Amino acid sequence: MDSIHFNPARCNLCGDCIDKCPFDALSMAETGIEVNDSCRVCGACVRSCSQKAISVEKKTGTVDKSQWKDFLIYVEQERGDIHPVAYELIGVARKMAPKVRYKVNCVIVGSEGTVENAKKLLNYGVDQVYVYEHPCFQGFKADCYTDAVSDCIAHIKPSSVLIGATSLGRSMAPRLATRYRTGLTADCTTLDIQENTDMIQIRPAFGGNIMAQIMISQSRPQFATVRYRVMDRAKKVENPSGKITVCEINDHMISSGIKVISSAVMEKKKAIEDAGIIVAIGRGVRNEEGVGLCQNLADALGATLAFTRPMVEQGIGNQLYQIGLSGHTVRPKLIITCGVSGAIQFTSCMNGAETIVAINSDPNAQIFNVANYCIVDDLYEVVPKLTALIQNKKED
Questions:
Q1: What is the predicted pLDDT for the residue at 260?
Q2: Which of 39, 207, 212, 314 is the most buried (most CB within 10 A)?
Q3: CB contact at 8 A, 69 and 102
Q4: DSSP three-state, residue 337
Q5: In degrees rounded to 5, what are phi and psi of residue 234?
Q6: What sign does the CA torsion over 122, 128, 132, 133 have?
Q7: If you average pLDDT over every residue of the chain, what do you get?
Q8: Cα(176)–Cα(187) distance, rounded to whole angstroms?
Q9: DSSP symbols for 204-254
C-alpha cells in the first residue's frame, strides 16, 4: 500500500498537516511528525503543506489480505427509515460469507432514530451494526457521511464494502474509494467471491452490450455499488445474535464544508422498481394506437406501463419507466411484454419477475427464451382480446 513520507530537511514543524488530517493520523513527536495506523493516504496533508515536505510514497506488491476481512454494508436511511436496498445487500453478503468464513457487518449514519433503525437490521442475521448518530447528520452531507463511514472502515478493516447504487450511494462510494486508494465497481448486477477473498463483480459495460467481470486483487477494501432490485432480499432469522456498537463521533465528522440553506421534502412517486404488475412495450408497438391498447391493458390489470430503450429514444414513454441496463431493474409478480424483441440489455433487468408473458409475432424472438408464457401473434389482435377478458372477469 502507499504511505506518507516526510522530508525532515523541508519540514518546519508548523503543524498544519496535523490540523488538516481528517483521520487524526498525524501527531507531533520529539523526532518530528509521526503517522499512525489511522492514515488512509488521502493526501490532505500533502495539499496543506506550504513547505512541500510531504509526499506519497508508492509501494509495489499486493496488500496483505489477511489484515482485511468480513463484509461491511452501508445502510442508507430514507425519510427516517431504512432504504430497501440495504436488505438486498445484506442478502447477497450472507450468501457469499460462508465461502470465505466472513461475518456480515453494517454501518449506519444519521440523526435521531438511527439507533432504533439499527436494531431492525439484527433480525436479518447481521453480526455487528456500527452506529453513528448525531444531530449534525440530519440530512445527507457527503463530507460528513464519508468521514463517518471512513472512520468505521479504518477501525474494522473490512475486505469488501457494499453500497446501494442510489443517488446518495453514488455520491459517497467514489469518495471512500479515493480515500483508500482502491477500486470501485459501480452499478453491479451480480456478485460472487473467490476463496482468496477477491470479490467477483459483474456489471454492464459498453452500453450494455457486454457484462464485464471485474476483480480488485491488489488493494483493500473492495468497494462495489449494487443496483436496487437486482438481488434477493435477506430473510429474517429466528434467533438473531448480532450486536450494536454506538461509535464515538469526533469534531471532524460533524464539521462540514456544506451549508444547507433550505430543504423541502419532494413528493414521492411510485417507482417502477416497486410495481407488482407491469405491461412493457417495445418497437413492435408501432404507433399511438398500439400504445393506447397497451395502456388499456395496464389499466385493466392495475399495472404500470413501462418501455424499452428504443421507445424512450423515440419519445414514446418516460425514462423513469424504462426497463433495461440504461434504465431500471424490476422484479414484479407479473410482467407482460408487448412487441419486445428481448435483447439482453432488457431481459437481464426483468428476468427476475415471478411470471413473464410475452406477446410477439416473431416465433424466433429472444424474449421467448425467458418467458413463462409465449403468445406468437399480432399484438394488435391479442391485446384488445386480453383486455376484454380481464374486464369481463372483473365484472363477473
A1: 82
A2: 39
A3: yes
A4: strand
A5: -65, 145
A6: positive
A7: 92
A8: 16
A9: EETTTTEEEEE---SSSSEEEEE-TTSSPPPPP-SS---EEEEPP--HHHH
User: Which CATH code is given to the segment(s) 65-254?
Assistant: 3.40.50.620
Kindly give the pairing relationship between strand 128-133 and strand 243-246: parallel
**Residue with C-alpha cell 469526533?**
250
- Residue 31 class from Cβ within 10 Å (0-12 exposed, 13-18 middle, 19+ buried)? exposed
pTM as predicted: 0.81
Q: How far apart are CA 169 and CA 171, in angstroms?
A: 5
pLDDT score, position 210: 78
- Looking at the DSSP bridge assignments, the partners of residue 375 are 359
For the domain spanning 272-395, the CATH number is 3.40.50.1220
Q: Are 108 and 118 in contact (CB under 8 A)?
A: yes
Helix residue ranges, H only, the chain: 16-20, 44-48, 85-100, 114-121, 142-156, 167-179, 251-254, 288-301, 309-313, 344-347, 379-395
Report pLDDT for 307: 97
**Is residue 55 within 8 Å of 64, Cβ to Cβ?**
no
Secondary-structure class of domain 3-57 per CATH: alpha beta
Provide the β-strand partners of residue 108: 75, 131
Q: What are the residue ranges spanned by the domains of the chain?
A: 3-57, 65-254, 272-395
In 3D space, the residue among 271, 309, 329, 303 whose CA is nearest the CA of residue 383 turns out to be 303
**Domains 3-57 and 65-254 fall in the same CATH topology:** no
For 236, left (φ over 0), alpha (ψ -120 to 50), or beta? beta
Entry field: residues in the chain? 396
Bridge-based pairing of strands 81-82 and 77-78 is antiparallel
